[in-house]
Design goal:
The chain is α/β, with parallel strands linked by helices. The chain folds into 2 domains: 242 residues, Aldolase class I (TIM Barrel, Alpha-Beta Barrel), CATH 3.20.20; 72 residues, Orthogonal Bundle (Non-ribosomal Peptide Synthetase Peptidyl Carrier Protein, Chain A), CATH 1.10.1200. The protein contains 13 helices and 11 strands. The protein has a 9-stranded parallel sheet. Helix 5 runs parallel beside helix 6, helix 8 packs across helix 9 and helix 10 packs antiparallel against helix 13. The model has no long low-confidence stretch (mean pLDDT 95). Bound molecules: flavin mononucleotide. Flavin mononucleotide (FMN) binds next to loops.
């Protein structure tokens, strides 16, 4: 798949997830088979960029390209300026968030709230495309609610504005994360535009990936929650799409070593105090499909130090290895 001048290694993309897809996690997913990993969203309002959280979100030093940075906002001028600054800091793709359903985001008419104002969508996209000389991509939901699904019209606006790829999460804003994603609208979008369309929502296995790809005709797939604690899902899907055969499940020792590496990267990137807190949820996700995971998660959620977390990780996965348990 191509996004402007960038030819991706494959058409599997790690979805942007605030609080999850930090630089260490993106690096791991890229290494384990994701063709692109979109950054966590950053507000277009640069006066908010001084916090330590934003400083880390804006840090792309040493990341494998193409570096895709997602911007959230509601004002064409501010968003264009934010795009320009991010390109100056190394962004090679600018992604626009028109999918976030969070109340505090929609209250300021950003994220998925923009789907209710098609003329404004056109103005925002045109301003950003005009402002930067890197490809601009867009991520949307299928509409504001079920009675106003307008993804096809938004896709046409995007194409006319010069957007170079469009990711569609198969839910409306009103759906939040409930129910199942629907792929009919994504199929319709794919049939309505010529830019690459990326299908997103509930893709959690190689088989599901193949069926979503076949049903929607999408050019690429975007995977979010299923990659949490399972960054190797990208190579599993990639292998299955290429050969129709599943890779053997990884051994507990392999997962232990990967998680220890991920843990070290998180602590290095976030520092010890923040890193130990942020690591808790990631460590817990790695255990979710294994027997004894509930008890392990309880202990990880109470953990206070790097050593304690490393000991818990080794204890949990070494026991699984001794028992001969494999990942689901
Ligand atoms: C914790 C979390 C944070 C998210 N943050 C963002 C974000 O920053 N930008 C965005 O466009 N979507 C965000 N999303 C939505 C995902 O990118 C994706 O569209 C959604 O999770 C559906 O895909 P999935 O079923 O593969 O998880 C977030 C989702 C989750 C679960």
């Amino acid at each position: 798949m191509r996004i402007g001048p960038h030819r991706l290694q494959n058409n599997l993309i790690l979805a942007p997830m605030a609080g999850v897809t930090d630089k260490p996690f993106r690096a791991l997913c890229r290494r384990l088979g994701a063709g692109l990993a979109v950054s966590e969203m950053i507000s277009a309002n640069s006066s908010l960029w001084g916090t330590s959280k934003s400083v880390r979100r804006l840090d792309h030093a040493g990341e494998p390209g193409p570096i895709s940075v997602q911007i959230l906002g509601a004002d064409p001028v501010t968003m264009a300026e934010a795009a320009r600054i991010n390109v100056a800091r190394g962004a090679q793709i600018i992604d626009i968030n028109m999918g976030c359903p969070a109340k505090k985001v929609c209250k300021v008419a950003a994220g998925s709230a923009l789907l209710r104002d098609e003329p404004l969508i056109g103005r925002i996209l045109a301003a950003i495309v005009e402002a930067v000389d890197v490809p601009v991509t867009l991520k949307i939901r299928t509409g504001w609610d079920r009675d106003s699904r307008n993804a096809v019209r938004v896709a046409r606006i995007a194409e006319e504005s010069g957007i170079q790829a469009l990711a569609v999460h198969g839910r409306t804003r009103a759906c939040g994360f409930s129910g199942l994603a629907e792929y009919e609208t994504i199929q319709e979008v794919k049939g309505s535009v010529t830019i690459p369309v990326i299908a997103n929502g509930d893709i959690d296995s190689p088989e599901k990936a193949q069926s979503v790809m076949a049903f929607t005709g999408a050019d690429g797939l975007m995977i979010g929650r299923a990659a949490q604690g399972r960054p190797w899902i990208f190579r599993e899907i990639s292998q299955y799409l290429a050969t129709g055969a599943r890779l053997p499940p990884p051994s507990p020792e392999w997962i232990r070593d990967l998680l220890l590496e991920h843990h070290a990267l998180m602590l290095d990137f976030h520092g010890e105090r923040q890193g130990v807190r942020i690591a808790r949820k990631h460590i817990a996700w790695y255990s979710k499909t294994f027997p004894g995971g509930n008890h392990f998660r309880g202990r990880i959620n109470q953990s206070e130090s790097i050593c304690e977390q490393r000991d818990l990780i080794c204890g949990f996965f070494d026991r699984l290895s001794y028992q001969g348990v494999l990942a689901a």
